[in-house]
């Protein structure tokens, strides 16, 4: 039974150090009421599937009241579930039902900004220049003879050429590092800090086990709002020192409830990255260098080594992730000539070899699940879903529009999941057309079809997660690199566990006297490990 399955490695209090956490993008997960949009009812109905998959926790992208200009990351009210998804009462039932199946819940908090429909921002617009209400945001007079120019030249997080300022009717401008509908909060204001601590308590009281922090290095701003100068230290809006006081106060709240934090921290400086993971700040942070790393043995090894090294001084576990709701799906990315990821290089019509990408994605799944620390699995990765190039007239992502139509946006990795091959809309929902169009071949990836196929991606994930939960050597702990030919990654964990991944052109030999636990694909003649294949061994 799912409720009695073994716990992840480690004690109950440090479950997060070795957990496998499944990312749920509610809008695209499962449609319970048939209106074309995923909802909490759909998630609740699929909880047994998630328990059987073998994950330890569920991370939900924002499910709060939102105009959905940016997929829910424009939050209008943190204490209200968006009606498209359900109600707070349903969220409470979901949290409790998931916990009964051994699944913890992690919610998403977006501290950098709110929706322009948030009551605070609407009050600020109405109150006018110089009002206390505007002090909660970054309102400024413009430059130029008539205030017609933005207050500074900061680049947008959605498109460097886009403006980060919007002028309102009374002539003032407000800052938004993302879309104009996402005004940035002023984190120097005590009311902003207090409100977010209250929101944390609101959801922790309802039983969530943790909080994911969106754009965790962005909220604090230089109060002078100077023009942007590349290389300026300190940066005017990224990784400012005053942020650490915020997260220390948040950590005190989390510790009251035994909850954990995971931060989205994009920083090239490993020493500054590690500061967010000090014992009195965040518990973990997303490993974004591994996520964007090309399918190249030397670069993957460097990413692993650097990740472990930057976490070691603060005693924090590493996290590993191949894809999320912002990133081109693994099967597609690994099937392209450029197997890395960079927002700046996304383009329509990029050629992809899906067979090659699938083979590599299967190997990468075993690689990531064998590394020390915790792992995040984005919904649909366990089905081997490819990226879908959404027709231009159906794209909803603001990244596409802010780029002037050059960037295809992130909708391609957010296409609704296929559950039943022979059901309408591949089983996502019963009546209305899904909010994003499904590809013509989506039924071939359906969960029910894969569940009956022992060679499917779903079968691979289920077996890998079963072994990870029940076998020794997985999760947090030491890693030792083993001698291997060029292009081959080979490392040992505790209790004789060995992972070998072949990225070289030719098949390679496996260690002698080793028993095979799991392979991402068939072995070659003579028991050799083929190219783009991974194995778990016990020696």
Automatic annotation (TrEMBL):
Residue span, Glycosyl hydrolase family 13 catalytic domain = 23-414
Q: Name one GO molecular function term.
A: alpha-amylase activity
Give the stretches traversing the membrane: none
* InterPro entries registered for this protein in UniProt: GH, GH13_cat_dom, O16G_dom_2
- Gene Ontology BP terms: oligosaccharide catabolic process
List the SMART domains hit by this protein, alphabetically: Aamy
* One protein family per Pfam: Alpha-amylase
Q: Which family does it belong to?
A: Belongs to the glycosyl hydrolase 13 family.
Q: What is this protein called?
A: DUF3459 domain-containing protein
Q: Upper taxonomic classification of the species?
A: Bacteria, Bacillati, Actinomycetota, Actinomycetes, Kitasatosporales
């Amino acid at each position: 039974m799912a409720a009695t399955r073994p716990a992840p490695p480690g004690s109950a209090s440090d479950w997060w150090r070795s957990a496998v956490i499944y990312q749920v993008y509610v809008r695209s997960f499962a449609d319970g009421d048939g209106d074309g949009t995923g909802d909490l009812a759909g998630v609740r109905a699929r909880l047994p599937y998630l328990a059987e998959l073998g994950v330890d926790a569920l991370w939900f992208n924002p499910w709060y009241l939102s105009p959905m200009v940016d997929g829910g990351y424009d939050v209008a009210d943190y204490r209200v579930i968006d009606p498209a998804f359900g109600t707070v009462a349903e969220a409470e039932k979901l949290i409790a039902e998931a916990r009964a199946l051994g699944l913890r819940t992690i919610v998403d908090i977006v501290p950098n900004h709110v929706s322009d429909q948030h009551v605070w921002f609407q009050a600020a617009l109405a109150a006018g220049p110089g009002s206390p209400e505007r002090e909660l945001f970054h309102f400024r007079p413009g430059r130029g003879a008539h205030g017609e120019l933005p207050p500074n030249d900061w680049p947008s997080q959605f498109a460097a050429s886009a403006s980060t300022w919007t002028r309102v009717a009374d002539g003032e401008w407000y800052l938004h590092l993302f879309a104009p509908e996402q005004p940035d909060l002023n984190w120097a204001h005590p009311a902003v800090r207090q409100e977010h601590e209250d929101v944390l308590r609101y959801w922790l009281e309802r039983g969530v086990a943790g909080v994911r922090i969106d754009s965790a290095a962005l909220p604090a701003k230089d109060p002078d709002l100077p023009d942007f100068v590349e290389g300026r230290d300190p940066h005017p809006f990224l990784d400012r020192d005053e942020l650490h006081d915020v997260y220390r106060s948040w950590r005190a709240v989390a510790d009251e409830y035994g909850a954990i934090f995971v931060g989205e921290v994009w920083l090239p400086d490993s020493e500054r990255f590690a500061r967010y993971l000090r014992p009195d700040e965040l518990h973990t942070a997303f490993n974004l260098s591994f996520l964007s790393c090309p399918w190249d043995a030397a670069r993957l090894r460097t990413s692993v080594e650097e990740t472990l090294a930057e976490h070691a001084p603060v005693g924090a576990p590493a996290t590993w992730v191949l894809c999320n709701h912002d990133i081109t799906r693994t099967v597609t990315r690994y099937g392209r000539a450029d197997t890395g990821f960079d927002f700046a290089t996304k383009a329509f019509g990029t050629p992809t070899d899906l067979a090659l990408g699938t083979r590599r994605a299967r190997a990468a799944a075993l690689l990531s699940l064998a590394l020390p620390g915790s792992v995040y699995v984005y919904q649909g990765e366990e089905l081997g879903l490819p990226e879908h190039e959404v027709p231009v007239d159906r794209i909803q992502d603001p990244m596409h529009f802010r780029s002037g139509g050059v960037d295809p946006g992130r909708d391609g990795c957010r296409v609704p999941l296929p559950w039943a091959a022979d059901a309408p809309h591949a089983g996502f929902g019963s009546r209305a057309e899904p909010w994003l169009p499904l590809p013509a071949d989506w039924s071939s990836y359906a969960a029910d079809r894969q569940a009956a196929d022992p060679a499917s991606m779903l079968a691979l994930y289920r077996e890998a997660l079963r072994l990870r939960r029940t076998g020794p050597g997985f999760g947090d702990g030491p890693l030792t690199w083993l001698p291997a030919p060029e292009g081959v990654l080979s490392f040992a964990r505790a209790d004789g566990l060995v992972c070998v991944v072949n990225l070289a052109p030719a098949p390679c030999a496996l260690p002698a006297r080793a028993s095979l636990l799991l392979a991402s694909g068939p072995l070659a003649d003579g028991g050799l490990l083929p190219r783009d294949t991974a194995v778990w061994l016990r020696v």
